[in-house]
Amino acid sequence: MLFSQRQEIILSLIDHQKVVTLEELVQETGSSESTIRRDLDRLEKAKKLKRIHGGASRIEDKAEEPSLAEKNLRNVEEKQRIGQYAASLVQEHECIYLDAGTTAMQMIPHLNLENLIVVTNGIQLVEPLVEKGIPTYLVGGLIKPKTGAMIGSGAIKSLENYRFDKCFIGINGIHEDWGYTTPDPEESILKQKVLELSQEKYVLADPSKFGKSSFSKVALLEEAFIITVKSKNVQLASFEKKTLVKAVEK
Amino acid sequence: MLFSQRQEIILSLIDHQKVVTLEELVQETGSSESTIRRDLDRLEKAKKLKRIHGGASRIEDKAEEPSLAEKNLRNVEEKQRIGQYAASLVQEHECIYLDAGTTAMQMIPHLNLENLIVVTNGIQLVEPLVEKGIPTYLVGGLIKPKTGAMIGSGAIKSLENYRFDKCFIGINGIHEDWGYTTPDPEESILKQKVLELSQEKYVLADPSKFGKSSFSKVALLEEAFIITVKSKNVQLASFEKKTLVKAVEK
DNA sequence: AATTATTGATTGAAAATGATTGTTTTTGAA
DNA sequence: TTCAAAAACAATCATTTTCAATCAATAATT
């Protein structure tokens, strides 16, 4: 059996059950213990999993899971800058959509406007919004346990009651050819619907998202504007040909 | 069994019930006492829990303030009893509605069923539900800042996608003549809709609600069953003439 | 054919486990 | 309160499991 086949088995098992024993993997692949160990070594170096005594476990890219609460504290500063700029685009009397996730959440502290209405699908955004005194609508639907985002057909249906002046959505990958992508198809559909319902469309993404592409396609580059921060590691020229890109200073 | 698997069991138990005995953990994991002790040592060093004589307890990080809903700590014990009994009425494969508010929330710890689906309009209920692994749908709509409940026409519309085997709603006043009442007309309409969509209808109310009536009428007494606790201050006879009343022991 | 990469088996070392020990803490009856 | 029995504890040991390192055999590449 080829390494890539085994890798697939290993990662899929880990993905489904969080931890997997060496023995299970030997069973499942028919390979020897030594081989599996070597595979695990490689996959650990590639940061695809974490080796533990007796097997391997899923990589928890965040230090700890504070239940549903705020996590993903990576690139906070960048996200704050993006959020600040994005918030400056919003004007009084507008109705805007904020996507679930940390990036759009960073806009909230800077939303100092009267007569603003916010719609979101992220439970985490509700509390800061309400505390700011902003009238907030939450999209209904099934709750995605990991992220506290609303998804599913109920959420889509729920969305159709609204129209937005502007929407601000987060994204996992921005690729020159493949456009905006995200890992969860359910979320992808929702984002598409939001874009459809909005006059002005903004995608918020820190530089780490550029050049990457994820499983599920949301939209083409030209279908939304991009807000990001300047970074020497990312060449924006090719993206700027297709859409408006605002890169704020660090 | 691998350490990480045990860790998960241990932490989840502690998370749910605050303290856990060594014996319980031995039972639950099938590992020996020695092993569990060592696990607890490790987890204590990692600040994931606090060891106590006989087991371990949750680490009380800091004052968890619910800011959005200053939790109504009145009559907690009574509400717990009511919640416990109400939860015992729920069966597998059912789809139930839980009203926003502390009383219905008290049902959650006792909802130990497989294949249960919960719909709620209370944001506060989401986290405990999700942590229990219960598939949860949140009604969409406008958020009522004080209570974190979803209200308004959007919520009503959002509700119409569902049908419930049972619903459990909280109420502010139960009056012999005026029936069930609540102060907020918006909430009242929502509760009416929920009752309409449910097969079996339960109103949860501690004894302080009896004989009172509030601004907005939800339904007549006979339109729902009542779950409360026994109290010498309340004469239930007149209510029992009109509907089924279950008064659990204190 | 020679070289390189991958594999499975073997080895002693390291880690984890369960049982046992004697000690400390808790409990409850005097 | 005091004291003895019971329960829970940390420390230690022998056993089992898992580990990394090494080696020879096989497959792929040059």
UniProtKB/TrEMBL annotation, chains A, B:
Pfam families: DeoRC, HTH_DeoR. The keyword Transmembrane helix does not apply. This is Transcriptional regulator, DeoR family. GO terms for molecular function: DNA binding; DNA-binding transcription factor activity. SUPFAM superfamilies: NagB/RpiA/CoA transferase-like (SSF100950), Winged helix' DNA-binding domain (SSF46785). Residues 3-58 form the HTH deoR-type domain. Keywords: DNA-binding, Transcription, Transcription regulation. Gene3D superfamilies: 3.40.50.1360, Winged helix-like DNA-binding domain superfamily/Winged helix DNA-binding domain. It comes from the Bacteria.
